[in-house]
Protein backbone atom coordinates (compact mmCIF):
# COMPACT_ATOMS: atom_id res chain seq x y z
CA UNK A 1 0.00 0.00 0.00
CA UNK A 2 1.47 3.38 -0.98
CA UNK A 3 2.19 5.85 1.80
CA UNK A 4 0.11 9.01 2.27
CA UNK A 5 1.95 12.30 2.58
CA UNK A 6 1.08 15.64 4.14
CA UNK A 7 2.53 18.91 2.86
CA UNK A 8 3.70 21.46 5.43
CA UNK A 9 4.08 25.04 4.16
CA UNK A 10 5.26 28.29 5.70
CA UNK A 11 5.66 31.58 3.83
CA UNK A 12 8.04 34.51 3.99
CA UNK A 13 6.22 37.41 2.34
CA UNK A 14 8.21 40.53 1.45
CA UNK A 15 6.14 43.68 0.97
CA UNK A 16 7.54 46.96 -0.40
CA UNK A 17 6.02 49.79 1.61
CA UNK A 18 4.28 52.74 -0.05
CA UNK A 19 6.54 55.44 1.40
CA UNK A 20 7.64 58.27 -0.89
CA UNK A 21 11.28 57.87 0.21
CA UNK A 22 13.58 54.98 1.12
CA UNK A 23 13.99 53.49 4.59
CA UNK A 24 17.31 55.13 5.55
CA UNK A 25 17.70 58.04 3.09
CA UNK A 26 15.67 60.66 1.22
CA UNK A 27 15.86 59.01 -2.25
CA UNK A 28 12.58 58.42 -4.11
CA UNK A 29 11.02 54.92 -4.13
CA UNK A 30 9.18 55.48 -7.45
CA UNK A 31 9.03 52.35 -9.63
CA UNK A 32 10.11 52.25 -13.27
CA UNK A 33 12.62 55.15 -13.42
CA UNK A 34 15.86 55.04 -15.41
CA UNK A 35 18.51 52.82 -13.71
CA UNK A 36 20.53 54.35 -10.87
CA UNK A 37 18.70 57.69 -10.87
CA UNK A 38 17.22 57.31 -7.34
CA UNK A 39 20.49 56.83 -5.47
CA UNK A 40 22.72 58.61 -2.96
CA UNK A 41 25.81 57.77 -0.82
CA UNK A 42 23.61 56.02 1.81
CA UNK A 43 21.73 53.57 -0.45
CA UNK A 44 24.81 52.83 -2.57
CA UNK A 45 26.82 51.97 0.55
CA UNK A 46 29.49 54.68 0.37
CA UNK A 47 31.95 54.62 3.29
CA UNK A 48 31.12 57.08 6.07
CA UNK A 49 27.47 57.62 5.03
CA UNK A 50 24.98 57.23 7.88
CA UNK A 51 21.41 55.84 7.79
CA UNK A 52 18.46 57.77 9.27
CA UNK A 53 15.26 55.75 9.89
CA UNK A 54 12.08 56.79 8.04
CA UNK A 55 9.31 57.12 10.68
CA UNK A 56 6.57 56.21 8.18
CA UNK A 57 8.15 52.73 7.76
CA UNK A 58 7.72 52.04 11.49
CA UNK A 59 4.09 53.22 11.37
CA UNK A 60 3.22 51.07 8.35
CA UNK A 61 4.87 48.03 10.00
CA UNK A 62 2.87 48.67 13.18
CA UNK A 63 -0.37 49.12 11.21
CA UNK A 64 0.12 45.76 9.44
CA UNK A 65 1.06 44.12 12.77
CA UNK A 66 -2.07 45.43 14.49
CA UNK A 67 -4.31 44.40 11.57
CA UNK A 68 -2.87 40.85 11.70
CA UNK A 69 -3.37 40.53 15.48
CA UNK A 70 0.35 40.73 16.32
CA UNK A 71 1.96 41.95 19.53
CA UNK A 72 4.17 45.03 19.08
CA UNK A 73 7.73 44.95 20.41
CA UNK A 74 7.94 48.35 22.09
CA UNK A 75 11.74 48.09 22.18
CA UNK A 76 13.05 46.88 18.83
CA UNK A 77 16.43 47.08 17.10
CA UNK A 78 18.07 46.76 13.70
CA UNK A 79 20.76 44.21 12.89
CA UNK A 80 23.26 43.78 10.08
CA UNK A 81 22.91 40.64 7.99
CA UNK A 82 26.27 40.21 6.26
CA UNK A 83 26.55 38.70 2.81
CA UNK A 84 28.47 39.49 -0.36
CA UNK A 85 26.50 39.92 -3.54
CA UNK A 86 26.77 42.52 -6.35
CA UNK A 87 23.25 43.94 -5.78
CA UNK A 88 24.01 44.50 -2.08
CA UNK A 89 26.22 47.63 -2.09
CA UNK A 90 27.19 47.73 1.61
CA UNK A 91 27.93 43.95 1.71
CA UNK A 92 25.31 43.76 4.45
CA UNK A 93 21.57 44.27 4.67
CA UNK A 94 19.97 46.14 7.56
CA UNK A 95 17.22 43.89 8.95
CA UNK A 96 15.82 42.75 12.32
CA UNK A 97 16.78 39.34 13.66
CA UNK A 98 16.73 39.53 17.45
CA UNK A 99 13.96 42.03 18.23
CA UNK A 100 11.53 42.35 15.28
CA UNK A 101 8.79 45.02 15.49
CA UNK A 102 5.83 42.56 15.53
CA UNK A 103 5.42 38.96 16.69
CA UNK A 104 2.87 36.24 17.50
CA UNK A 105 -0.10 37.18 15.32
CA UNK A 106 -2.40 35.39 12.91
CA UNK A 107 -5.20 35.79 10.38
CA UNK A 108 -8.26 33.68 9.65
CA UNK A 109 -8.66 32.22 6.17
CA UNK A 110 -11.56 30.38 4.57
CA UNK A 111 -11.15 27.58 2.01
CA UNK A 112 -13.27 24.66 0.77
CA UNK A 113 -12.19 22.85 3.97
CA UNK A 114 -13.63 25.61 6.19
CA UNK A 115 -12.12 28.32 8.39
CA UNK A 116 -8.61 28.18 9.84
CA UNK A 117 -6.19 30.55 11.57
CA UNK A 118 -2.71 30.84 10.03
CA UNK A 119 -0.17 31.95 12.63
CA UNK A 120 2.25 34.81 11.98
CA UNK A 121 5.58 34.21 13.69
CA UNK A 122 6.90 37.74 13.20
CA UNK A 123 6.99 40.85 11.01
CA UNK A 124 10.28 42.69 10.67
CA UNK A 125 11.48 45.81 8.86
CA UNK A 126 14.41 45.72 6.43
CA UNK A 127 15.84 47.34 3.32
CA UNK A 128 15.59 45.90 -0.17
CA UNK A 129 18.65 45.07 -2.26
CA UNK A 130 19.37 46.46 -5.74
CA UNK A 131 18.50 44.56 -8.90
CA UNK A 132 20.81 42.63 -11.21
CA UNK A 133 20.02 42.69 -14.93
CA UNK A 134 21.71 39.91 -16.89
CA UNK A 135 22.55 41.07 -20.41
CA UNK A 136 22.94 37.92 -22.50
CA UNK A 137 23.79 39.91 -25.62
CA UNK A 138 26.85 41.55 -24.03
CA UNK A 139 27.43 38.53 -21.72
CA UNK A 140 27.59 40.66 -18.59
CA UNK A 141 25.50 41.59 -15.55
CA UNK A 142 24.46 45.17 -14.81
CA UNK A 143 23.24 46.45 -11.47
CA UNK A 144 20.49 49.00 -10.80
CA UNK A 145 20.55 50.45 -7.26
CA UNK A 146 17.18 52.26 -7.53
CA UNK A 147 15.57 49.51 -5.43
CA UNK A 148 18.43 49.42 -2.93
CA UNK A 149 17.13 50.81 0.37
CA UNK A 150 13.44 50.63 -0.57
CA UNK A 151 11.62 49.78 2.70
CA UNK A 152 10.30 46.26 3.15
CA UNK A 153 8.44 44.39 5.80
CA UNK A 154 8.91 40.63 5.88
CA UNK A 155 5.91 38.69 7.21
CA UNK A 156 6.99 35.24 8.40
CA UNK A 157 4.15 32.76 8.87
CA UNK A 158 4.12 29.66 11.04
CA UNK A 159 4.25 26.37 9.04
CA UNK A 160 0.44 26.12 9.32
CA UNK A 161 -0.57 25.73 5.65
CA UNK A 162 -1.21 22.34 4.08
CA UNK A 163 -2.16 23.07 0.45
CA UNK A 164 -1.82 25.52 -2.43
CA UNK A 165 -5.45 26.56 -1.78
CA UNK A 166 -4.62 27.58 1.80
CA UNK A 167 -1.51 29.45 0.65
CA UNK A 168 -3.51 31.40 -1.95
CA UNK A 169 -6.25 32.23 0.59
CA UNK A 170 -3.62 33.44 3.10
CA UNK A 171 -1.81 35.60 0.51
CA UNK A 172 -5.09 37.02 -0.77
CA UNK A 173 -6.22 37.98 2.74
CA UNK A 174 -2.81 39.47 3.55
CA UNK A 175 -2.74 41.46 0.31
CA UNK A 176 -6.22 42.88 0.93
CA UNK A 177 -5.38 43.89 4.52
CA UNK A 178 -2.20 45.68 3.37
CA UNK A 179 -3.95 47.39 0.43
CA UNK A 180 -6.80 48.58 2.67
CA UNK A 181 -4.23 49.99 5.10
CA UNK A 182 -2.57 51.84 2.18
CA UNK A 183 0.78 50.37 3.30
CA UNK A 184 1.58 48.95 -0.17
CA UNK A 185 -0.07 48.40 -3.56
CA UNK A 186 1.03 44.72 -3.31
CA UNK A 187 1.54 44.31 -7.08
CA UNK A 188 3.14 40.90 -7.49
CA UNK A 189 4.06 41.64 -11.12
CA UNK A 190 6.08 44.74 -10.08
CA UNK A 191 7.69 42.91 -7.17
CA UNK A 192 6.06 45.04 -4.45
CA UNK A 193 4.79 41.78 -2.91
CA UNK A 194 6.98 38.69 -3.15
CA UNK A 195 6.51 35.30 -1.49
CA UNK A 196 9.14 32.67 -0.72
CA UNK A 197 7.64 29.25 -0.04
CA UNK A 198 9.14 26.96 2.61
CA UNK A 199 7.83 23.47 1.94
CA UNK A 200 8.37 20.00 3.36
CA UNK A 201 6.46 16.73 3.21
CA UNK A 202 5.98 14.10 5.89
CA UNK A 203 4.05 10.88 6.23
CA UNK A 204 0.44 11.60 7.16
CA UNK A 205 -0.02 11.37 10.93
CA UNK A 206 3.66 12.01 11.72
CA UNK A 207 4.36 14.69 14.33
CA UNK A 208 7.87 15.38 12.98
CA UNK A 209 8.60 17.95 10.28
CA UNK A 210 10.40 16.85 7.13
CA UNK A 211 13.41 18.62 5.57
CA UNK A 212 12.25 21.85 3.98
CA UNK A 213 13.28 23.67 0.84
CA UNK A 214 12.74 27.35 0.12
CA UNK A 215 11.47 28.42 -3.29
CA UNK A 216 12.06 31.89 -4.68
CA UNK A 217 11.11 33.81 -7.86
CA UNK A 218 7.32 33.52 -7.46
CA UNK A 219 5.50 36.51 -8.91
CA UNK A 220 1.87 35.41 -9.27
CA UNK A 221 -0.66 33.39 -7.29
CA UNK A 222 -0.85 30.88 -10.16
CA UNK A 223 2.95 30.43 -10.20
CA UNK A 224 2.91 29.90 -6.42
CA UNK A 225 0.22 27.20 -6.79
CA UNK A 226 2.16 25.44 -9.57
CA UNK A 227 5.44 25.69 -7.62
CA UNK A 228 3.85 24.09 -4.52
CA UNK A 229 2.43 21.18 -6.54
CA UNK A 230 5.74 20.72 -8.40
CA UNK A 231 7.93 20.79 -5.27
CA UNK A 232 5.57 18.51 -3.32
CA UNK A 233 5.72 15.91 -6.13
CA UNK A 234 9.55 16.21 -6.35
CA UNK A 235 10.04 15.65 -2.60
CA UNK A 236 7.60 12.70 -2.46
CA UNK A 237 9.40 11.09 -5.40
CA UNK A 238 12.75 11.40 -3.57
CA UNK A 239 11.32 9.87 -0.38
CA UNK A 240 9.64 7.03 -2.31
CA UNK A 241 13.04 6.24 -3.88
CA UNK A 242 14.61 6.15 -0.41
CA UNK A 243 16.63 9.34 -1.04
CA UNK A 244 16.94 12.32 1.31
CA UNK A 245 15.53 15.79 0.67
CA UNK A 246 18.34 18.36 0.85
CA UNK A 247 17.71 21.64 2.71
CA UNK A 248 18.36 24.24 0.03
CA UNK A 249 17.07 27.34 -1.74
CA UNK A 250 15.49 26.55 -5.11
CA UNK A 251 14.43 28.79 -7.95
CA UNK A 252 11.09 28.13 -9.67
CA UNK A 253 10.99 28.42 -13.47
CA UNK A 254 7.32 28.93 -14.28
CA UNK A 255 7.79 28.41 -18.03
CA UNK A 256 9.39 24.98 -17.57
CA UNK A 257 7.28 24.29 -14.45
CA UNK A 258 10.40 23.05 -12.71
CA UNK A 259 12.53 24.20 -9.79
CA UNK A 260 16.31 23.94 -9.63
CA UNK A 261 18.77 24.31 -6.75
CA UNK A 262 20.34 27.77 -6.24
CA UNK A 263 22.35 27.22 -3.06
CA UNK A 264 22.40 25.07 0.06
CA UNK A 265 20.37 26.77 2.77
CA UNK A 266 22.32 29.07 5.05
CA UNK A 267 21.64 29.27 8.75
CA UNK A 268 21.36 32.51 10.74
CA UNK A 269 25.00 32.11 11.89
CA UNK A 270 26.19 32.11 8.26
CA UNK A 271 25.07 35.75 8.05
CA UNK A 272 27.07 36.78 11.15
CA UNK A 273 24.27 39.03 12.43
CA UNK A 274 25.15 41.76 14.90
CA UNK A 275 23.27 44.89 16.12
CA UNK A 276 23.65 47.79 13.67
CA UNK A 277 26.02 50.30 15.29
CA UNK A 278 24.69 53.26 13.25
CA UNK A 279 21.03 52.98 14.28
CA UNK A 280 19.62 53.57 17.74
CA UNK A 281 16.94 51.19 19.11
CA UNK A 282 13.32 52.12 18.29
CA UNK A 283 11.28 52.91 21.40
CA UNK A 284 7.53 52.61 20.75
CA UNK A 285 5.32 54.28 23.38
CA UNK A 286 1.77 53.24 24.26
CA UNK A 287 0.61 56.63 22.92
CA UNK A 288 2.26 55.96 19.54
CA UNK A 289 0.58 52.55 19.24
CA UNK A 290 -2.74 54.17 20.19
CA UNK A 291 -2.33 56.83 17.48
CA UNK A 292 -1.67 54.16 14.83
CA UNK A 293 -4.70 52.16 16.09
CA UNK A 294 -6.95 55.21 15.80
CA UNK A 295 -5.86 55.74 12.19
CA UNK A 296 -6.59 52.14 11.15
CA UNK A 297 -9.22 52.14 8.37
CA UNK A 298 -12.23 49.83 8.14
CA UNK A 299 -10.99 46.51 6.75
CA UNK A 300 -12.82 44.19 4.38
CA UNK A 301 -14.53 42.02 7.03
CA UNK A 302 -16.16 45.05 8.68
CA UNK A 303 -17.01 46.55 5.28
CA UNK A 304 -18.89 43.39 4.24
CA UNK A 305 -21.08 43.53 7.34
CA UNK A 306 -21.77 47.25 6.92
CA UNK A 307 -22.62 46.95 3.20
CA UNK A 308 -25.34 44.39 3.88
CA UNK A 309 -26.90 46.57 6.58
CA UNK A 310 -26.42 50.02 5.10
CA UNK A 311 -26.79 49.47 1.35
CA UNK A 312 -28.92 46.30 1.14
CA UNK A 313 -26.98 44.93 -1.83
CA UNK A 314 -26.64 41.14 -2.41
CA UNK A 315 -23.84 39.33 -0.53
CA UNK A 316 -22.29 38.32 -3.88
CA UNK A 317 -22.05 41.97 -5.02
CA UNK A 318 -20.59 43.02 -1.66
CA UNK A 319 -17.93 40.30 -1.82
CA UNK A 320 -16.82 41.22 -5.35
CA UNK A 321 -16.76 44.98 -4.63
CA UNK A 322 -14.89 44.71 -1.31
CA UNK A 323 -12.32 42.33 -2.84
CA UNK A 324 -10.66 45.50 -4.21
CA UNK A 325 -10.14 48.63 -2.14
CA UNK A 326 -10.36 50.70 -5.34
CA UNK A 327 -13.80 49.27 -6.25
CA UNK A 328 -15.03 49.70 -2.66
CA UNK A 329 -13.91 53.36 -2.64
CA UNK A 330 -15.63 54.07 -5.99
CA UNK A 331 -18.80 52.31 -4.81
CA UNK A 332 -19.02 54.31 -1.57
CA UNK A 333 -18.16 57.69 -3.11
CA UNK A 334 -20.52 57.28 -6.10
CA UNK A 335 -23.34 56.11 -3.79
CA UNK A 336 -22.78 59.13 -1.53
CA UNK A 337 -23.35 61.38 -4.58
CA UNK A 338 -26.37 59.67 -6.19
CA UNK A 339 -27.90 57.69 -3.32
CA UNK A 340 -28.52 54.63 -5.54
CA UNK A 341 -26.32 51.81 -4.13
CA UNK A 342 -27.82 48.94 -6.16
CA UNK A 343 -27.53 50.90 -9.44
CA UNK A 344 -23.88 51.82 -8.70
CA UNK A 345 -23.20 48.20 -7.77
CA UNK A 346 -24.73 47.04 -11.09
CA UNK A 347 -22.47 49.34 -13.12
CA UNK A 348 -19.41 48.09 -11.25
CA UNK A 349 -20.38 44.41 -11.34
CA UNK A 350 -21.34 44.26 -15.02
CA UNK A 351 -19.90 46.97 -17.28
CA UNK A 352 -16.81 47.88 -15.22
CA UNK A 353 -15.69 44.26 -14.73
CA UNK A 354 -16.36 43.54 -18.43
CA UNK A 355 -14.22 46.47 -19.58
CA UNK A 356 -11.45 45.61 -17.09
CA UNK A 357 -11.32 42.08 -18.49
CA UNK A 358 -11.39 43.24 -22.13
CA UNK A 359 -8.56 45.72 -21.50
CA UNK A 360 -6.55 43.28 -19.35
CA UNK A 361 -6.63 45.75 -16.43
CA UNK A 362 -6.82 45.42 -12.65
CA UNK A 363 -9.39 47.42 -10.59
CA UNK A 364 -6.40 49.49 -9.31
CA UNK A 365 -5.94 50.75 -12.91
CA UNK A 366 -9.44 52.35 -13.04
CA UNK A 367 -9.16 56.03 -14.00
CA UNK A 368 -12.77 57.26 -13.89
CA UNK A 369 -14.05 59.32 -10.97
CA UNK A 370 -16.89 58.16 -8.69
CA UNK A 371 -18.65 61.51 -9.42
CA UNK A 372 -18.91 60.75 -13.14
CA UNK A 373 -20.29 57.28 -12.47
CA UNK A 374 -22.88 58.82 -10.11
CA UNK A 375 -23.88 61.37 -12.78
CA UNK A 376 -24.43 58.55 -15.29
CA UNK A 377 -26.63 56.67 -12.80
CA UNK A 378 -28.74 59.80 -12.25
CA UNK A 379 -29.08 60.49 -15.99
CA UNK A 380 -30.33 56.91 -16.54
CA UNK A 381 -32.63 56.94 -13.52
CA UNK A 382 -34.24 60.23 -14.62
CA UNK A 383 -34.90 58.75 -18.08
CA UNK A 384 -32.72 61.48 -19.63
CA UNK A 385 -30.89 58.72 -21.56
CA UNK A 386 -31.96 55.14 -22.20
CA UNK A 387 -29.95 52.03 -21.24
CA UNK A 388 -28.39 51.60 -24.72
CA UNK A 389 -27.08 55.18 -24.76
CA UNK A 390 -25.98 54.82 -21.11
CA UNK A 391 -23.69 51.87 -22.02
CA UNK A 392 -22.17 53.88 -24.88
CA UNK A 393 -21.58 56.85 -22.54
CA UNK A 394 -20.07 54.59 -19.85
CA UNK A 395 -17.46 53.28 -22.28
CA UNK A 396 -16.30 56.90 -22.70
CA UNK A 397 -16.40 57.47 -18.92
CA UNK A 398 -14.28 54.32 -18.43
CA UNK A 399 -11.75 55.20 -21.12
CA UNK A 400 -11.42 58.97 -20.65
CA UNK A 401 -13.33 59.90 -17.47
CA UNK A 402 -15.56 62.30 -19.44
CA UNK A 403 -18.36 64.24 -17.74
CA UNK A 404 -21.48 62.27 -18.83
CA UNK A 405 -23.82 65.28 -18.55
CA UNK A 406 -21.69 67.42 -20.87
CA UNK A 407 -21.10 64.47 -23.24
CA UNK A 408 -24.85 63.70 -23.56
CA UNK A 409 -25.65 67.40 -24.12
CA UNK A 410 -22.91 67.96 -26.74
CA UNK A 411 -23.87 64.89 -28.79
CA UNK A 412 -27.63 65.30 -28.48
CA UNK A 413 -28.08 61.87 -26.89
CA UNK A 414 -31.05 62.73 -24.66
CA UNK A 415 -34.05 60.44 -24.92
CA UNK A 416 -36.79 61.88 -27.11
CA UNK A 417 -39.93 62.09 -24.99
CA UNK A 418 -41.85 64.26 -27.47
CA UNK A 419 -44.94 62.12 -28.05
CA UNK A 420 -45.89 63.89 -31.27
CA UNK A 421 -42.48 63.20 -32.88
CA UNK A 422 -42.59 59.59 -31.63
CA UNK A 423 -46.09 58.96 -33.03
CA UNK A 424 -45.05 60.35 -36.39
CA UNK A 425 -41.96 58.12 -36.58
CA UNK A 426 -43.90 55.02 -35.44
CA UNK A 427 -46.66 55.65 -38.01
CA UNK A 428 -43.92 55.74 -40.69
CA UNK A 429 -42.40 52.45 -39.41
CA UNK A 430 -45.87 50.78 -39.47
CA UNK A 431 -46.46 51.97 -43.03
CA UNK A 432 -43.04 50.69 -44.19
CA UNK A 433 -43.36 47.20 -42.63
CA UNK A 434 -46.78 45.74 -43.64
CA UNK A 435 -45.56 42.13 -43.26
CA UNK A 436 -44.57 42.59 -39.59
CA UNK A 437 -47.84 44.40 -38.90
CA UNK A 438 -49.84 41.51 -40.36
CA UNK A 439 -47.68 38.96 -38.43
CA UNK A 440 -48.43 40.83 -35.19
CA UNK A 441 -52.13 41.01 -35.94
CA UNK A 442 -52.25 37.26 -36.66
CA UNK A 443 -50.92 36.57 -33.14
CA UNK A 444 -47.12 36.59 -33.58
CA UNK A 445 -46.18 38.66 -30.49
CA UNK A 446 -42.47 38.68 -31.46
CA UNK A 447 -43.18 40.81 -34.52
CA UNK A 448 -43.56 43.87 -32.29
CA UNK A 449 -39.89 43.50 -31.25
CA UNK A 450 -38.85 44.08 -34.87
CA UNK A 451 -41.05 47.20 -35.10
CA UNK A 452 -39.60 48.56 -31.80
CA UNK A 453 -36.10 47.96 -33.23
CA UNK A 454 -36.94 49.81 -36.46
CA UNK A 455 -38.36 52.74 -34.46
CA UNK A 456 -35.23 52.91 -32.26
CA UNK A 457 -33.11 52.87 -35.42
CA UNK A 458 -35.15 55.69 -36.94
CA UNK A 459 -34.79 57.68 -33.68
CA UNK A 460 -30.98 57.00 -33.62
CA UNK A 461 -31.42 55.04 -30.37
CA UNK A 462 -32.74 58.07 -28.49
CA UNK A 463 -36.34 57.00 -27.95
CA UNK A 464 -37.72 55.65 -24.69
CA UNK A 465 -38.32 51.90 -25.45
CA UNK A 466 -41.30 51.59 -23.09
CA UNK A 467 -42.97 54.66 -24.69
CA UNK A 468 -42.32 53.19 -28.17
CA UNK A 469 -43.90 49.89 -27.07
CA UNK A 470 -46.95 51.63 -25.65
CA UNK A 471 -47.60 53.83 -28.73
CA UNK A 472 -46.95 50.95 -31.15
CA UNK A 473 -49.53 48.70 -29.45
CA UNK A 474 -52.01 51.55 -29.38
CA UNK A 475 -51.59 52.32 -33.14
CA UNK A 476 -51.70 48.62 -34.08
CA UNK A 477 -55.06 48.17 -32.34
UniProtKB/TrEMBL annotation:
User: Membrane spanning segments where?
Assistant: none
Do you know which SMART domains this protein is assigned to? Answer: GatB_Yqey (SM00845)
Known catalytic reactions: L-aspartyl-tRNA(Asn) + L-glutamine + ATP + H2O = L-asparaginyl-tRNA(Asn) + L-glutamate + ADP + phosphate + 2 H(+); L-glutamyl-tRNA(Gln) + L-glutamine + ATP + H2O = L-glutaminyl-tRNA(Gln) + L-glutamate + ADP + phosphate + H(+)
Q: Which stretches make up the Asn/Gln amidotransferase domain?
A: 329-476
Give its E.C. classification number.
6.3.5.-
Q: Which GO molecular function terms does the record list?
A: asparaginyl-tRNA synthase (glutamine-hydrolyzing) activity; ATP binding; glutaminyl-tRNA synthase (glutamine-hydrolyzing) activity; transferase activity
**Key words, A-Z:** ATP-binding, Ligase, Nucleotide-binding, Protein biosynthesis, Transferase
Q: GO biological process: what's one of them?
A: translation
What InterPro entries is this protein classified in? Asn/Gln-tRNA_amidoTrfase_suB/E, Asn/Gln-tRNA_Trfase_suB/E_cat, Asn/Gln_amidotransferase, Asn/Gln_tRNA_amidoTrase-B-like, GatB, GatB_C_1, GatB_Yqey_C_2, Gln-tRNA_amidoTrfase_suB_CS
Note the superkingdom of the native organism.
Bacteria
Q: What does this protein do?
A: Allows the formation of correctly charged Asn-tRNA(Asn) or Gln-tRNA(Gln) through the transamidation of misacylated Asp-tRNA(Asn) or Glu-tRNA(Gln) in organisms which lack either or both of asparaginyl-tRNA or glutaminyl-tRNA synthetases. The reaction takes place in the presence of glutamine and ATP through an activated phospho-Asp-tRNA(Asn) or phospho-Glu-tRNA(Gln).
Assigned protein family: Belongs to the GatB/GatE family. GatB subfamily.
Assembly behavior: Heterotrimer of A, B and C subunits.
- State what protein this is by name: Aspartyl/glutamyl-tRNA(Asn/Gln) amidotransferase subunit B
Q: What species is given as this protein's source?
A: Lactonifactor longoviformis DSM 17459
Amino acid sequence: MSRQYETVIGLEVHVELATKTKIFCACSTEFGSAPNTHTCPVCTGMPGSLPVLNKQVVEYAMAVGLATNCKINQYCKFDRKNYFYPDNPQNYQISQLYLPICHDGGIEIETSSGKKVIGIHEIHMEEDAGKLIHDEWEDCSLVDYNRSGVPLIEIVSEPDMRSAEEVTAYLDKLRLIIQYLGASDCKLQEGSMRADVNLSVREAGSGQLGTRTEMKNLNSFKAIGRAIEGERARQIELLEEGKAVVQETRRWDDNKEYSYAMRSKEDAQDYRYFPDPDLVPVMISDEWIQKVKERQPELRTEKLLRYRKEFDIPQYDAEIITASKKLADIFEEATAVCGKPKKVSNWLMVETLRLLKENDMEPEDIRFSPENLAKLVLLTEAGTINSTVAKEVFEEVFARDIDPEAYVEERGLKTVNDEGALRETIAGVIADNPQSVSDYKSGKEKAIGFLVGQTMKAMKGKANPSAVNKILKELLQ
